[in-house]
Protein 1
Amino acid sequence: MKKTSLLLMMTLATATQAGSVAEEQGKLIKYFNDRYPDVKIESMIHGAMVFSPDAKSQYDSIMEMPPFLDTLEKGKKMWETPLKSGKTYAQCIPNGGKNIAGNYPQFNEQKAKVVTFEDLINDCRKANGEEPYSYGDMDKMGTLTAYARTLSDGMKVDIQVGSPAAKNAYEDGKKTYYGRAGQLNFSCANCHVHSAGNNLRSEILSPVLGQTTHWPVFRGKDGGDKATTLQNRYVGCFKQVRHISDKEGSEMLNNLEYFHSSLSNGMTMQASVYRK
């Protein structure tokens, strides 16, 4: 009964979407419900920890006093510092930047392409006399978005896919997600759909559902205080399968993020969390 209610709830959350978008998410919800009947879909925002109570307990302890508080404070200062025009980010980003990150990426009809939350940041910078940040610059773009995305904590993901052009971008991202790449001939889905919950060396592989809700993350392997954006992680994953990825902010990775994020529609956002 609970599974059926959850499936209906998350399907309704995407009722305004193209059928293929809701259907794709619905298929994955059913897949994971069938495979892991004791795991609640909404808990998958915690990634691989849904398969390890010990890991979740350690995470909860770390998040009581996370090692990246100074980085978040630096990001807040960047957010509040006036740009050359005298305006702050909050004055040039819709709704002061609050409760909007869950709507990104989105397809911009005027630009005829997918735009990400990072694009929104750079558009604001350029409109106010500043040079855009590099999308791969974790010290600047990573730190700023680590704070900015927390302004949407608690928001439900709501990625819209409407026009034919938007659907084409969505399908391109889907092709990348399910397509095999690199010398190891792996796809994103190999790890995060078909092998989710399994161990790869010393790591448990996380499920695709809820996977885009919590970025940037702060990884223990990087000292716990350096932000890693979602697209920076894409580049790292491609590297692990020995594939040369397009750069952060590229059309390929923007479309991938567009598709990937739509699979978490209706799930709760919580940015800037700790990961191994």
Protein 2
Amino acid sequence: MTHLRKMMLEELERRNYAQTTIDCYIQAIEDFARHFHRPPDQLTPEHIREYQAYLFRERKLAASTVTQRLAALRFFYTQTIKKAWSVADTPYPKKRRPLPSILSPEEVAHLIDSSQTRFHRMVLMTLYGTGVRRAELARLQITDIDSRRMVIHIRSGKGCQDRDVMLSPRLLEALRDYWRGLKRKPREWLFPGGSRHTSNRPITPRAVWYACQRAAQRAGLQNRVHPHTLRHCFATHLLENGADLRTIQLLLGHHDLKETAIYLHLSRRHLHATASPLDSLQLKDKSPQNP
């Protein structure tokens, strides 16, 4: 470990940043230095400007990803090596806000039924049944399953916030059935890592992504589905079934209700509740003769 990497790691850890954020920030600085073949403390704002343009032009990265890279660079310069940072010279890019793709309940069922293994099936059922993020699912412990209160405890979610989500009776039954079929019972993690899922470490968020991708390919949905898709489906289907936005906000762990309000644009019940003004027009039945 280099001296600069150690310094940055210490600054991130003493501020209690999430492990996923620490990993992303460290990787971003390494990529920045590797691009110019020089230590990052020797690079200037001009290099940052060139690097930001390169990420868009050559790497074709999304605006949110570039923003994350800039946040990592800003942290490195201001907190690790204590250099000035000009917001005017390093603007955050404007973000597109496309609506997320949503699967119908029938497509979600088909996706889950297309799971490659029983382990993958439980991962997908838990993602859809709770609406958790993939990193949150990977860190679930056996003791987080509270069958008496019928809730699942999410520890240190985004923003280091804990929360409870519902434990579906169907999910609880599936988890118990899966547990009974295990030859070697996990001691700590609900979804252990390793090739046989018997490790004393949890699965990685990438393993959750892989389980989703394999099922999507088998179901013929590979271009539309990733773990966060099931989180969007969870929220949208709850809204369509009558849940209110505030409840959904708490279940998802959103800080701002505006984040949750996007699902109003995706809910068929809300979209169909209002008629188009075209339907109220008194139009003549005759069509123009000219094409």
Protein 3
Amino acid sequence: MIQKEKENQKKKRKVDLVVISDVHLGTYGCHARELVRYMRSIKPKAVVLNGDIIDMWQFSKRYWPRDHMQVIQQVIKWISKGVRVYYITGNHDEMLRKFAGFKMGSLSIDNKLLLNLDGKKAWIFHGDVFDVTMSHAKWLTKLGAHGYDLLIVINAFCNWVSEKMGKGKISLSKNIKNSVKRAVKYVNDFEKTCADIAVANGYDFVLCGHIHHPEMKKIFTEKGVVNYLNAGDWVENLTAIEYYKGTWSMYHYNEKDYHYIEEEQEEKFEYMSNQEIFNTMLNEFTFPHPGKKNISVETEPVTNKKNLS
């Protein structure tokens, strides 16, 4: 019975499209190990990396753990297998915006993306374009990013103490944001702005990140209605947006789901140096044959279509 359950856990879930946002590789708050487990558990046809994947604002050569390199390795694995990977730039990886329009194999880099999903339009972008501080006080935003990273480190220590005392985990930043009216208003204004523009352009779905607030809901405006989705982050919430057979769903990481994870494989990468992982990545980086037909989310018909409720 246990062996059968273990085999079921090893099977990769099929997903038509997965949206991952705000990973912040290179920072202490990034939950890269958990993200790697999730990435290895799914079999996507297309992937959207929706901004702030690598945190170039706080990047330091002194801090780049092996599990952060494993995230990059998994992305390259997908690319080498012909999985369509869209890298949408964010504010923390804004240096990549000069490469917008770049394509190599099944990888493309853009500032925004418009996908046709079963006849419906999905508008995807990071979201920092609607952040007032990004436009008028970027220095304040960068200062806040360093403070946020420090708060995450303090939070990790508090959770360690809390678990030792037999209590559950807490999120200091979540509690602070939820208790401050201005922060709540900022989230609401952000969502409304996204919805207004999406409706004005006739889009059915609008997907973003940036605010580290996972959400799936319909937003009604004076001119119409749109399905708003935010993929959240891999610093606090550990969430992703999945699209499969015409249905959107929010994925929440749960440690219990990976109870039967292959420990030998995880340990193998744990004790590999970054250089060894990098060499492994190079060996895997072979593009599909030009004649091979890649699966496209835009063109493949999907059955059992359901609307977001």
